[in-house]
């Protein structure tokens, strides 16, 4: 019986392959064998009676049609999904993309390169809109070895995608797959997708923050990490706090307050821990905050309610001299209160004649110094207080009267309008001013970070540690410490007085493109080309949050001044607002059509400004958009889009940098490009 | 399979000296090459993003190669976009056009202008959320005036990145000398032989172009100052003519400067202050000059002729203008061709004659000078009208050659004319001013002997409504007879020769118009006009 079957397979296989002679030979031999068999006993049969072997042969005979089966299976699943009820359709659609990707990779692994190509191209368009960047990456995969080599693909193959789906949809899907016997599809789904089946109604379509984004790291890990508690409260004993507490008596406030502070501190601590643990308890605080913000406009002393929890610094923070402190306090007292009805004034610095060489720009906290990093390795600093005396006149004077005495324009004041800093040996990718404007850091493609003194106009230190271009560098909000982000997939924490990094944050799966300090200096956030944003504890060097949701490389980050929210902008022009404590996306902000180069929160955190390559500065209402999810957190929010307040177009100048001064004047910098 | 064909791999292998690359290897390499290339391009995009750009440059690719520790490809970072050329004979093979650069040229070339240094400008993008309407901001719907002077300054030194430096006009020493010499001759010794040679030089020499603006300025200046100096004006006009004749000079851009002075010499009230000055001659000369300018540049500046005729017509129709001015205007119009005369002068002829008549008569106008002028004007008018009527009649060939006539019409060309008619016209031309004769050229185109703009001829068949109006009103009882006569004869002739040509009606109409015209002219000018009419036609009409 079984032998007959086996013989049939063999004959069929030979026929298929066109081995005619072999077929003949085989049949001849068979006949001989049979005749022999008749004579002798049936000994030979028992040798090949393994049913598994027959199955193996069966699958072997079908080898040729693997591509067709994949293609057929996927297209069946696809057409079924598209024709399903609207209620469940969008949930099912989420399943399609991972299935598509894995079908393609399976085909590549099995060696059907040509088939994989045609499969990829025939269904590519479905996913083009959402996942074009992934597709571009995967398109180049042409051999199994590439899959192993490419980290993105590699990690995709070795991790499961988590998809939230409702009970009924899940059953529908499984039923269909079983009924139609699409075993390949079923296999892929089993192997690579991890369904989180939730009872009840399917999730509404508008809730597209939950959309499937394939990143390399396993999402279980991410959720596990996001369980960790963080203390996002403001630093205790910050100047703002002191201003609120002491009002006018500043000079000797420290001593006088010595004891009262102790008591309050404990309370703060408690609250902050609470705030870190669960988002719910902070809601109340948040409400308080809003209330206090209302009251604060009139009186700085109306601070019986402490707005945000206070935390202790984990780092030894630099001491601020009293004069500087005074000037900062002066600024804080003169701060303009911004809200959706009182928008800021924006001062725009336009770079001209840069000949396409400007890579980055940075503005000091008081707006008086503007630095530009160029692709010819040079760093140029303009002192706008001197340069634009008549142009910006009174405002700038007011802004920098405290510090202008410290600045010396340097020997070349006559001819050049700027101070030239030379020292790097590769394009300068980022620059940052210390909070007081007396130091400047720059990072470059030569994998170094350099510290410059703007008072002496000299290079002080060269920090070597990264192995690849350093994309970004940022001073901590209080100075002294700084963080750098590099192509070597690490972010590093440094202090100005050491040439070795203090911490190395490793974990991103691709370049770390941007870095930003949390206001309390205990955390840094990093944005990466792996489309995630991570939050790291500076003290321990651990990753404490992973924010997943961007669909392309993250280019800019900003932290709100109350330490609760973070905004991140990506290559496609999307801005996402994150709640640090929950690790969730509060609101996606759509509006920009091109790369978001820069983000900045206003000082009291009510507005977010974004600067983009599409030559606009946009102002977003933060208070309105963050309050909404608080009241209706359980996702019925079509309204939870961040409200765009104003779009300010520039004259063909992509916006490279944004900075709110301490008095809430917004400075923006961009380069005039001829054809945009 | 991959977008890199295996042939490419083979070619590259050969280019680095591997001649015996097996096809299997090439086939295996091709997908890998594509994968690597994609990788590098993705890295390059990263570099581009960090340079805050949205266009990929060769520098970015070099940066990406650096990241992979690969030697960058040198020679492509020259800024400008690469120009690919298609290889001849291949549909999709491109190469970069690499020009040979002579090292000597590079070394000897003057240093290029240093690029402008980077700078920062500062402006308010928004004040309390509202964008001020200043030039630095993107234009809002309403463009208001810049708010203050400071904005102007900034705009001036900021936004236009490439600044135009004032152009220095360098004139060689020789040209300066030449210019001085010519102007001196024109000013003082315009009757010398040397001046005539200078005119020839002006008309023929190449390389005078740099001087043209100076000459036009000189002419305009001198004409406005020297209206009383007849010889100077004449000399200047001669210079103008020579400049116009010079084939190496591109004079069009300066015409607008030149025309006013020329027209001034045509219709000025007084030209020259001595009695002996024959300003009539100057006017005639200038009239021809104007006509030739119109002829040459009329197609470039469409409104040139209309503007000119408007000016002239104003001078002609304004009774307050002096007779000299009117003479100039008539001559100018006449020089523009019989068509212009017929459209612009003939309709106004009758009222004008009524005004002119008293001036001509001894008893009415005592001033000898004025009377003389009036007769001059009369002569000019007569000449213009006569030429016009001649031109009209000339189109009717003798009855015997009707078929030829038809051919000529249908072709609408002036080339075929009947020789015997031309001969007669030559006889009549005896009365014309001498310069007209000089303009007579070859016998092939008789049109040129009479009027300058030959291209007008083709459309002269169009009947002029003004004429038909005047005809009936002015003609007395005897005219209808004549017309009927003429028509009758022509009718018969036409019917005999041609059967039912579509052109017939038009010809009849034309005849009718000419008949009317001739009659009215006869009334106005008396027998004087008859000398302009060729004999065959004359016999026809009278």
UniProtKB/TrEMBL annotation, chain A:
Residues 68-193 form the TFIID subunit TAF5 NTD2 domain. SUPFAM superfamilies: Taf5 N-terminal domain-like, WD40 repeat-like. Pfam families: TFIID_NTD2, WD40. Residues 247-301 are annotated as: Disordered. It is found in: Nucleus. Keywords: Nucleus, Repeat, Transcription, Transcription regulation, WD repeat. One of its GO terms (cellular component) is transcription factor TFIID complex. It comes from the Eukaryota. One of its GO terms (molecular function) is RNA polymerase II general transcription initiation factor activity. InterPro entries: LisH, TFIID_NTD2, TFIID_NTD2_sf, WD40/YVTN_repeat-like_dom_sf, WD40_PAC1, WD40_repeat_CS, WD40_repeat_dom_sf, WD40_rpt. The keyword Transcription applies. GO terms for biological process: transcription initiation at RNA polymerase II promoter. Residues 252-274 have a biased composition (Basic and acidic residues). SMART domains: WD40. Transmembrane segments: none annotated. WD repeats lie at residues 421-453, 463-504, 505-546, 547-588, 589-630. This is TFIID subunit TAF5 NTD2 domain-containing protein. It comes from Lithocarpus litseifolius. The lineage of its organism: Eukaryota, Viridiplantae, Streptophyta, Embryophyta, Tracheophyta.
From TrEMBL, chain B:
Residues 470-481 have a biased composition (Polar residues). It holds the Pfam family TAF. SMART domains: TAF. The keyword Nucleus applies. One of its GO terms (biological process) is RNA polymerase II preinitiation complex assembly. InterPro entries: ARM-type_fold (IPR016024), Histone-fold (IPR009072), TAF6 (IPR037796), TAF6_C (IPR011442), TAF6_C_sf (IPR046344), TAF_TATA-bd_Histone-like_dom (IPR004823). Keywords: Activator, Nucleus, Transcription, Transcription regulation. GO terms for cellular component: SAGA complex; SLIK (SAGA-like) complex; transcription factor TFIID complex. It is found in: Nucleus. GO terms for molecular function: protein heterodimerization activity; RNA polymerase II general transcription initiation factor activity; transcription coactivator activity. Residues 420-444, 464-495 are annotated as: Disordered. Its main location: nucleus. Residues 421-434, 484-495 have a biased composition (Basic and acidic residues). It comes from the Eukaryota. Residues 2-68 form the TATA box binding protein associated factor (TAF) histone-like fold domain. Belongs to the TAF6 family. This is TATA box binding protein associated factor (TAF) histone-like fold domain-containing protein. It comes from Lithocarpus litseifolius.
């Amino acid at each position: 019986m079984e032998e007959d079957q086996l013989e049939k397979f063999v004959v069929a296989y030979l026929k298929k392959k066109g081995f005619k002679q072999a077929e003949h030979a085989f049949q001849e031999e068979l006949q001989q064998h049979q005749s022999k068999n008749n004579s002798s006993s049936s000994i030979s049969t028992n040798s090949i009676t393994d049913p598994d072997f027959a199955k193996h042969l069966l699958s072997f005979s079908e080898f040729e049609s693997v591509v067709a089966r994949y293609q057929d299976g996927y297209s069946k699943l696809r057409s079924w999904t598209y024709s399903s009820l609207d209620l469940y359709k969008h949930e099912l659609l989420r399943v399609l993309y991972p299935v598509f990707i894995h079908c393609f990779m399976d085909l590549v692994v099995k060696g059907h390169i040509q088939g994989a190509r045609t499969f990829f191209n025939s269904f590519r368009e479905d996913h083009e809109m959402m996942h074009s960047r992934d597709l571009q990456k995967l398109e180049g995969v042409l051999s199994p070895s590439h899959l192993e080599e490419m980290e993105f693909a590699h990690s995709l193959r070795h991790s499961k995608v988590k998809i939230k789906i409702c009970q009924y949809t899940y059953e529908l899907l499984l039923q269909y797959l079983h009924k139609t016997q699409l075993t390949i599809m079923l296999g892929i789904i089993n192997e690579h997708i991890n369904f989180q089946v939730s009872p009840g109604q399917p999730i509404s379509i508008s809730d597209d923050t939950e959309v499937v984004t394939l990143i390399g790291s396993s999402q279980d890990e991410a959720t596990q990490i996001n369980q960790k508690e963080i203390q996002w409260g403001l630093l205790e004993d910050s100047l703002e706090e002191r201003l609120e507490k002491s009002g006018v008596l500043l000079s000797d406030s420290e001593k006088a307050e010595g004891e009262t502070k102790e008591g309050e501190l404990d309370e703060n601590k408690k609250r902050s821990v609470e705030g870190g643990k669960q988002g719910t308890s902070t809601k109340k605080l948040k409400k308080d905050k809003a209330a206090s913000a209302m009251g604060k406009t009139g009186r700085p002393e109306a601070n019986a309610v402490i707005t945000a929890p206070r935390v202790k610094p984990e780092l030894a923070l630099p001491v601020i001299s009293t004069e500087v402190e005074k000037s900062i306090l002066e600024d804080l007292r003169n701060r303009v209160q911004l809200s959706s009805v009182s928008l800021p004034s924006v001062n725009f610095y336009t770079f001209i004649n840069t000949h396409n060489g400007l890579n980055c720009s940075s503005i000091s906290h008081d707006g008086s110094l503007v630095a530009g990093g160029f692709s010819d390795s040079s760093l140029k600093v303009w002192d706008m207080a001197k340069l634009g005396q008549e142009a910006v006149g009174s405002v700038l004077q007011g802004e920098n009267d405290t510090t202008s005495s410290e600045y010396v324009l340097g020997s070349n004041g006559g001819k050049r309008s700027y101070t030239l800093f030379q020292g790097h040996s590769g394009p300068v990718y980022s620059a940052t001013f210390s909070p007081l404007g007396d130091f400047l850091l720059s990072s470059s493609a030569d994998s170094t970070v350099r510290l410059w003194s703007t008072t002496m106009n000299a290079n002080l230190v060269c920090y070597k540690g990264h192995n690849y271009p350093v994309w970004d560098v940022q001073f901590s909000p209080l100075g002294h410490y700084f963080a750098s982000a590099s192509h070597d997939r690490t972010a590093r924490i440094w202090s100005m007085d050491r040439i070795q990094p203090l911490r190395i944050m490793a974990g991103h799966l691709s370049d770390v493109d941007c870095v930003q300090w949390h206001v309390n200096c205990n955390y840094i956030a990093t944005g990466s080309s792996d489309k995630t944003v991570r939050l790291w504890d500076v003290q321990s060097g651990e990753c404490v949050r992973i924010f997943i949701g961007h669909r392309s490389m993250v280019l800019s980050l900003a932290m709100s001044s109350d330490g609760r929210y973070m905004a991140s902008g990506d290559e496609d022009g999307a801005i996402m607002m994150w709640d640090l404590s929950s690790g969730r996306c509060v609101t996606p902000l759509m509006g920009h059509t091109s790369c978001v180069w820069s983000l900045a929160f206003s000082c009291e955190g009510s507005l977010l400004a974004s600067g983009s390559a599409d030559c606009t500065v946009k102002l977003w209402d933060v208070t309105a958009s963050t309050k909404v999810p608080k009241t209706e957190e359980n996702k019925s929010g079509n309204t939870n889009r961040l409200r765009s307040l104003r779009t300010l177009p520039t004259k063909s100048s992509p916006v490279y940098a944004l900075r709110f001064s301490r008095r809430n004047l917004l400075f923006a910098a961009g380069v005039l490009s001829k054809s945009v | 399979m991959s977008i890199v064909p295996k042939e490419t791999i083979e070619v590259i292998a050969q280019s680095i000296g591997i001649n015996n690359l097996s096809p299997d290897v090439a086939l295996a390499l091709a997908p890998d090459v594509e994968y690597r290339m994609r990788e590098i391009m993705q890295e390059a995009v990263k570099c581009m993003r960090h340079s805050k750009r949205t266009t990929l440059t060769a520098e970015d690719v070099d940066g990406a190669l650096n990241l992979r520790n690969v030697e960058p490809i040198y020679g492509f970072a020259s800024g400008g976009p690469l120009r690919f050329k298609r290889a001849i004979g291949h549909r999709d093979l491109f190469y970069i056009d690499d020009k040979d650069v002579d090292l000597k040229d590079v070394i000897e070339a003057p240093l290029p202008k240093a690029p402008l240094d980077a700078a920062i400008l500062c402006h308010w993008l928004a004040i309390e959320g509202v964008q001020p309407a200043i030039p630095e901001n993107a234009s809002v719907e309403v463009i208001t005036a810049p708010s203050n002077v400071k904005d102007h300054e900034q705009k001036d030194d900021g936004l236009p990145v490439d600044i135009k430096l004032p152009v220095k006009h360098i004139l060689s020493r020789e040209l300066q000398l030449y210019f001085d010499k010519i102007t001196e001759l024109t000013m003082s010794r315009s009757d010398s032989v040397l001046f005539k040679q200078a005119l020839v030089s002006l008309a023929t020499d190449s390389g005078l172009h740099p001087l043209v603006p100076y000459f036009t300025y000189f002419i305009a200046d001198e004409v406005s100052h020297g209206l009383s100096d007849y010889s100077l004006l004449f000399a200047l006009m001669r210079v103008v003519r020579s400049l116009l004749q010079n084939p190496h000079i591109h004079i069009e851009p300066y015409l607008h400067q030149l025309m006013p002075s020329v027209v001034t010499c045509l219709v000025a009230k007084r030209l020259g202050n001595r009695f002996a000055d024959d300003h009539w001659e100057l006017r005639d000369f200038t009239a021809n000059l104007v006509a030739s300018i119109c002829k040459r540049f009329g197609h470039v500046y469409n409104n040139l002729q209309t503007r000119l005729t408007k000016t002239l017509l104003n001078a002609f129709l304004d009774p307050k203008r002096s007779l000299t001015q009117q003479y100039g205007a008539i001559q100018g119009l006449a020089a523009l061709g019989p068509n212009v005369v017929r459209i612009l002068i003939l309709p106004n002829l009758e009222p004008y004659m009524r005004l002119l008549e008293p001036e001509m008569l001894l008893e009415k106008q005592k001033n000898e000078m004025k009377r003389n002028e009036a007769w001059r004007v009369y002569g000019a008018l007569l000449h213009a009208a006569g030429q016009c009527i001649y031109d009209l009649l000339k189109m009717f060939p003798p009855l015997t050659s009707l078929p030829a006539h038809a051919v000529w019409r249908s072709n609408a060309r002036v080339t075929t004319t009947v020789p015997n008619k031309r001969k007669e016209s030559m006889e009549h031309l005896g009365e014309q001013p001498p310069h007209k004769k000089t303009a007579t050229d070859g016998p092939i185109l008789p049109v040129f002997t009479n009027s300058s703009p030959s291209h007008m001829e083709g459309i002269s068949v169009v009947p002029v409504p003004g004429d038909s109006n005047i005809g009936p009103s002015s003609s007395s009882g005897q005219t209808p007879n004549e017309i009927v006569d003429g028509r009758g004869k022509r009718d018969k002739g036409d019917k005999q020769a041609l059967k039912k040509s579509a052109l017939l009606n038009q010809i009849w109409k034309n005849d009718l118009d000419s008949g009317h015209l001739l009659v009215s002219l006869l009334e106005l000018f008396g027998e004087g006009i008859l000398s302009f009419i060729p004999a065959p036609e004359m016999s026809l009409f009278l």
